[in-house]
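Why do we care about 3D structure at all? Because function follows from shape, and shape follows, mostly, from sequence. That is the central idea of this module. The next example makes it concrete: a single protein chain, its amino acid sequence, and then its structure expressed as tokens.
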Amino acid sequence: MKIKFIFFSILLFTSFVYSQRLYKITVYIDNKETTLSYLERNGIDFVSSNEFSDLLSANRFNNLETGKIEIKFREYTLKYTARNQFVILNRKSDGIQKIFQMPVPALILKDDVFVPLIFSLDYFNLCYEKKITYNSAAKNLTITDEPFSAESLVLSKETMVKEEKPAEQKPAAVKPDSRYDVYSIIIDEKSNGTLIRLKTSRKIPIPRHSISNGNLFVFLPGITISPDIINNVKPAGLVKRVKRTVVSSKNFQLEFALGEGYSTSEAYQDIESSDILITIGDKQINAATQVMEDVKLKWVFDAVVIDAGHGGKDPGAIGVTGVREKDINLAIALKLGKLISKNLPGIRVIYTRDKDEFIELYKRGKIANENGGKLFLSIHCNSTVQKDISYRGFEVYLLRPGRTQKAIAIAEFENSVINYEDNPQRYQKLTDENFILVSMAHSQYMRYSESFSDILNVEWKKKVEIPSLGIKQAGFYVLVGASMPGVLIETGFLSNRKDEAHLKSAAGQNEIADAIYSAVKKYKENYEKEFGN
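And the structure:
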């Protein structure tokens, strides 16, 4: 019995357990140092939304019954719901609303919603309108005065979320009644299920119970139950209705109609009060541990996808001396893959193609996703319409709307591969409107793509003869399909004789492969520090 009670205490009284396991992040704001409470679950830091909103001088509204919190900033309102992966962002000026999905759900501890910090930082940056940075390894959060650029978060009109109903008042506590063995029922929603407390006037045996056809039956033979017990019950959590049934003169049973999402039930006895405690597991919450494990695996850096652009019937760009882009892309891709396989044990290398063959763009993303890729590197060579010109250099591209005509033109050329495909209509044109959906789908990966592109740009300048033209952005179909951080690398211009000569030489290809490999290695180190892998 003692073991069961201890297990029950761990299972349901999470607010007590978590309070013992809360840690403090160091926060730097306005030249002062303070702290922010957090807890760690499977390598992910969850922070107190109550404390975070106070640090940012934001107003908030908590609905304890629904586990919702609204954090109100000058221009935006940010809404989280406990045990839910969705974040609602509402812009006050025009009512435009956007719904984002985090990889993990928020947690609820007592009267506080704890949100996954690394997956929430962009939203807080946007709402606060100033840059907030987090060093997960050092557990340091810096709230700066630097304006935040909202380019990576595009808002669009979405279906409005229904207004929350005002919290109802709970009924007054029922006084103990010694005339009956069971005189009251109290139902509470906990962070990982629903707790039914049968208030007793004496110690009674732990009753048998079972769930059948959406009802929890509690059998109480030889136990007296107050005839008014149902009148004072307030359903909550998974319990929707309660019924008292007289089986015979001295045999009663209680029936609890359950809502969707229940799993199993357990019965215990409170050692101090002798009350009967019945837990009903929430299927969603009981699965949360597995979800968290799955999410952790999702973010473990263990696979790099190398995409050699073009191939087969699609030659890509043609160089000044007739060099075909598809051949250079494949040569660099294979050299890069060998470096990673040799020097980074535990990292799988996935090629979208490892020979001269035509692979449709949508299939490249499909290959990456089906193999659990964690970083997508699409390797290409650039070119201009006019050959043998002086313009040369390396560029790395992020998936965002093109800012310049050159970037747009490059994306259009790379995307023109679809004309070799049997069904080019499957690709929706990447208009600004369509980028709303693309940005939402890739928002959780964008900062990692940015991080890799920054590292690659530095490594390239150190190791490669071809000059760097920096980090650009444009709408590449091949990046849209890969659900992971990713960049498109334009290694140089085949329309320039110097670049072409370097790109087709074994020495040049080795140089480029080594620069990309070094970037992958450093990115991996930074990534694993952040996720605690």
